[in-house]
Amino acid sequence: MSSGNGASPSKVTPMALRVVVVVALALLFWIFAPVFLLAFGGVLISIFLRTLGTWVSKWTGLSAGWSLAIVLVALGLLSAAGIYLSGEPVTKQITELVDQIPRSLEKISNDLKNYEWGKWLAKKAPTSAEDLPVSGKDAASYALGALSSVTGGIVGGIVGALIVLILSLYLSFAPDTYISGAIRLFPVRKRERILAVLKEVHETLQMWLLGKILSMIVVGVLTSIGLGLIGVPLALALGIIAALLTFVPNFGPILSALPAVLLAFVDSPMRALYVILLYLGIQTVESYLITPLIQQKTVSLPPALTISTQIGLGILFGAGGVVLATPLTAAALVLIKRLYVEDVLEAK
């Protein structure tokens, strides 16, 4: 017998169970976020490899396994050829870039002292070890800690990259094994729907990746050519940096422009202005011409949502969160739309 107008235990218990499940999943995601990000990176690379393998299979009629093996061998040979043909020039330019940026900063600092506001900034900046927040043994400990942190970050990045690569290979050669295992975690009546949603997530990430790779190539080529025409040194290295950072929308282009502007400023402020205009022009073409054309057949994400996700994941999980924020957002939008909006809110 129910008491008053209170909800019956049969209705309260399932709702309470759902809340517990959601909270538990959120805690698991928080605790294992680094593992989740690595796994998601592996999924992205495996989607890229499987897409290339599918194309090879259609052209040659070979099985998926052999087609994927051909893709891996071809990518390995292309990488080796690229390193052999341009590895030394690129490495030399990147080394010079690392050497010249501190010199550029020093020259800019000296030039700023010719202005009153520059002198004011120079007075506020620390000029000796005594002016720093820490000094003496504390400064040495601080420097050692910073060096250890940087070294640990580099080692961690290399290990993470290896893990992502190994995961992507396993996922590429036997995707059905992992998909069927994930599907079995859901009730039988829901498995067909979950499989359809996962396929849509796969297609969304696939099209997003293809569009992003095309944008990266266009931006890298235009940047290298433009900087070369302006007369900025190390144009090839700067173009490669611009291409790689295009993977991170909104913030990547800004970061890629900084070293080019610094190098150009060493020659003259006017050349630095030309570089700024060049990067603005390339990003305008990429944002308003290339990306819209690509998104006609790929996926379009709301800019405000993308930026918010990048900031949030960046604060929570660091650089990895920023890099993977956009594809995570694309996948999450499909899941929310299909499994929550359609299956819960709009369910009859």
| C-alpha termini separation | 30 Å
What is the percentage of strand-forming residues? under 5%
Which value, in Å, is the CA radius of gyration? 26 Å
Mean pLDDT: 78
Order of helices and strands: HHHHHHHHHHHH
* Number of H/I helices: 12
Strand tally, please?
0
Helix content: over 70%
Structural class: mainly alpha
Overall 3D form: globular
Largest sheet composition: none
Low-confidence stretches: 127-132
Features:
mainly alpha, 85% helix, 0% strand, globular
Task: Describe the overall structure.
It is a single chain. By secondary structure, this protein is mainly α. It has a domain at 88-113 and 187-345. Helices cover 85% and strands 0% of the residues. The chain has twelve helices and no strands. The two termini are 30 Å apart.
What does this entry show, briefly?
By secondary structure, the chain is an all-alpha fold. The chain has helices at residues 9-31, 33-60, 64-112, 116-124, 136-173, 175-183, 188-230, 235-245, 252-267, 269-295, 303-317, 319-345. The chain is built from twelve helices and no strands.
Sequence-ordered SSE layout with sheet pairings:
Layout: H1 9-31, H2 33-60, H3 64-112, H4 116-124, H5 136-173, H6 175-183, H7 188-230, H8 235-245, H9 252-267, H10 269-295, H11 303-317, H12 319-345
